[in-house]
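Appendix B. Raw example, untouched.
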Amino acid sequence: MTEARAKARTQPGESRFAQGFALFAECLLTGVWIAVAALPLVTYPAAFAAGARHLGRRMAHERGGWREFVADFRAAVRRGWLVGVAGWAALAVVWVDVRAVRDGLPGGPLVGAVGVLALIGAVVAGLRAAADWRPGASWRSLLAGAGRRTVLDPAGSFLLVGGLAVVVCSAWFSAPLAVAVLGAVAAAAVAVEERHRSR
């Protein structure tokens, strides 16, 4: 992937600005694809995996479009829906935890903070696993590796937390804007994983 990227940089043609703008537009379009694929709610890990794989191809200047995205989504959703269910279960546990803190649980603020931080860490690990997904890969091993990278690469993890904060702020400002920003978060996850591999 890195060699293809380097070769594409040396070829004459589009300016760097045009290439960057095209990638930005692709991120926005991919965000819409991710949002549509995640509508069943438990398919969001597979949607992010397919989106990240599509953007990885785009950054490597390989061909690929909607058909490849759908094929990747179908492959990722076979086991990825279980990861989606587990994610919603974790969110429910943290929500109950926060409700208990509000009701005056002894030591509640500490327990609530730990629960929220654990949820953020799980979301970051999920994004990193989705960015690393390939057809035939085991979600369990992807999540285990992503969990280690989340802890061992704090700079990359904080970058993804910032991307998630942008999505939340965008949703607060305008829900359609948050849909498009999802593609930028997927691109950030791909870049973070590529950065980690090249270190």
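End of appendix B.
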